[in-house]
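Running this now, will post back.
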Amino acid sequence: MRWAVLLVVLALPAYARAQPADSDLPGMMAALKAAPDPHAATDLEQRIAAAWLDQATPAVRLLLQSGSVALDARSLGEAESDFSAATTLQPSLPDAWSLSALARYHAGDGAGAIRDIAHALMLDPEHFTALETLSYVAEAQSDWRGALDAWQKVLAIDPEIEGGADRLKELRRRALGQST
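Update: finished.
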């Protein structure tokens, strides 16, 4: 999943990240929809992730960093705790909810992941990483139609996401019995 990209962004000191990208978030989202190839899309995804992180308060940023490190180390309880604290401190931050959902998904808590995704998408309907996690949660529950629907929303926002076409083909096959 894409949380590895977020780990890279979280590991960068604030001064090493691009200029405060949140002021141009709408422009970056529009550019993502028009990205010419997966490489360009990945670059934009990283810049958008940095912009989302720039919206966090310093305390929440530390919690997101700690939770991401714990998630990477598969310390899922610690990750869930850090992300839960982040959502408590800054409930208006979609990325905190999205990361909390990802931790819950990896911990096997599909219902909790879906609740957190709903919060993230209520705050930002174009939060493509939340939609990506939703697709994987639905897939884990053998809800192929739900996984397909969520993935199609990801592709509407990020059409050149790495592996996107292959995943779409597989989800269509499973959900609809189609290969294209």
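The chain has a mean pLDDT of 88. More later if anyone needs it.
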